[in-house]
Specification:
77 residues, mainly alpha
Length: 77
């Protein structure tokens, strides 16, 4: 069950305790699903980027680019 379905069903089960009417359930469920989708996409994109960079030997998980010292030939630029 996805974020939309879970949120929608939860709202129907908790309808007595929610401060908004039933006609807003789809809007709230859609917003929650969009937020979850954005978060999942951001995490997966970061993991994919790290995998590509590790495959290209530019950095590893233990030594990311931001922690590496600048080589001598690049300091002169």
């Amino acid at each position: 069950m996805g974020a939309f379905g879970g949120t929608y069903i939860s709202q129907h089960l908790l309808v007595k305790y929610l401060p908004y009417s039933r006609k807003n359930h789809i809007i709230v469920s859609s917003l929650v699903a969009c937020g979850v989708a954005y978060q999942v996409t951001a995490v997966r994109a970061k993991a994919c980027q790290a995998a590509w960079m590790a495959a290209e030997d530019k950095h590893t998980f233990l030594n990311p680019i931001s922690d590496r010292p600048i080589p001598a030939e690049e300091e002169d630029d």
